[in-house]
Amino acid sequence: ATVSEPAQKCCTENIQPFLTSILEELMGPVSSGFTEVRSLFDKEVNEIIQNFQKTNDITKLKENVDQLMNLPFNSVKMEPCYLKVNLLQELLQDLKSRFKVYHIDFVVQRTQNFMQELMENAVYTFEQLFSPSRQADSAKVATTIEKVKLRVLK
């Protein structure tokens, strides 16, 4: 009871006025990282479509979709996504001194983990939605892939 009132006063005067601007500042790198994940998924699926349109090879299509399933674990391809949130390091340094925010590396790492998880969910959903269509007429496969991609991105 004796600590509650001073703590609330401290939060109300020294922290709460800054929360909105802090969140906006932090969301920039986070949003750009997640946008990069979306773009990477879109690019990879577009390459699958283009390759299939060139070859019309169902076996090669299956290989390409299998490779897509490994995308979240491909550190080279995911690296540009992760780099976007590295800007959090700099932003959080300022918060560390002003508000005693610790474990900055943990915040960045968790954000990158969420990005990988998002990619895992996207490729899994893509595979689940596309899987029944693999046996379809090869003329419709590219269109089906595009529809599934758009559904996943939605």
From TrEMBL:
PANTHER family: NIBAN FAMILY MEMBER, PROTEIN NIBAN 1. It comes from the Eukaryota. Belongs to the Niban family. This is NIBAN protein. The lineage of its organism: Eukaryota, Metazoa, Chordata, Craniata, Vertebrata. Residues 9-154 form the Niban 1/2/3 domain.
